[in-house]
């Protein structure tokens, strides 16, 4: 009877460990992870094996994830918008021959796409328009993404319902202070002259909204309008009036609808590869529209992701909090344990992650924040995360150590239990 009771206790303990494998104290995890602790002043990591956490440190402590957060944004976009979703941009003309461009948040409205759009407009018979009117009313943003410091760096580009080239402009300033477009397909735009006057000689890719606006238009609206107008002129479509902001009237006639050339899945691959904050937050905002309807707002996006995290990822706000989708904000928080849980669900899409050291992973970097999240081929594609919020960037040391260690899926060892 005693043997039977003892067996039942062992069986019960094993059952509890399996059922609550993601809730064990870190000191109970087996492995050689203790050697990594000297490299961690303030941070944590977690590694799974056979679907269970095998090594961890500070796995229930929330840390700022920086751009590794884009994995959650990507997973939400794939599930909420769908991997084959395409964004639409519509074109209308009214009785006064004004042409309206009605945006819907396409993250990939790039120069080559606009050239194709202009060709199609030309093919419809348009040779002359009055005013070119920018309708970006699909997004009602009272602020920019939390963490956006509006520097000239393109990673601080603003989000909008209608923006071109990720809202970043590429120009060349010569040693003689002449300004040129840094793309042979793009004509020299008046905005380039304005911005170039404030920059030193060299090649520049800058956030257009970091510079003072002129007139009634925001720099996003001005850049969009000037690029369309310049490319229309090259295609012999004359804009007789001006570039304006306005709502598309209900009586305007549809002329053309352009559907983004890239699907959400393809957009995400580029977003994760280049860690593009603009794309990530356009998709973050689009998730809010899909759930609550237009217009896009930060509040709708935050509430949508909060609901998605709770219902689909089974994580609490204490484990994962998102205030924007790119990782710029230091008010985003996630625990290592929550991130490996997310990675388990993201596994069918892991080929979307870029390779570093032949490991599919997403990095995340801010001042004093150094993170990795991905899958270790050396451990049978086991999900792992490293979240360091400290001055010293030791993430590569930790990554190489984890990758080199033999796989160990044992949750408890006899030695640990005796202690």
Description:
The chain is an alpha+beta fold. It has two domains: 22-81 and 265-418, DD-peptidase/beta-lactamase superfamily (Beta-lactamase, 3-Layer(aba) Sandwich), CATH 3.40.710; 88-261, D-Ala-D-Ala carboxypeptidase C, peptidase S13 (D-tyrosyl-trna(Tyr) Deacylase, Chain: A, 3-Layer(bba) Sandwich), CATH 3.50.80.20. The protein is 32% helix and 20% strand. The protein contains eleven helices and 18 strands. The protein has helices spanning 2-19, 70-80, 111-123, 190-196, 219-234, 264-274, 277-292, 298-312, 336-346, 395-404, 414-418, and strands spanning 43-49, 52-57, 88-93, 99-102, 128-129, 132-135, 168-173, 179-181, 202-207, 238-239, 243-245, 253-259, 320-321, 333-334, 355-356, 359-366, 369-376, 382-388. The strands form five sheets. Strands 2-1-18-17-16-15 form a six-stranded antiparallel β-sheet, with helices on both faces. The chain has a five-stranded mixed β-sheet with strand order 11-6-4-3-12, covered by helices on one side. A three-stranded antiparallel β-sheet has the order 8-7-9. Helix 2 (70-80) runs parallel beside helix 7, helix 3 crosses helix 5 (219-234) and helix 7 (277-292) crosses helix 8 (298-312). The longest helix has 18 residues, at 2-19. It is elongated. The model is unreliable at 1-22, 27-32 and 408-419 (pLDDT under 50).
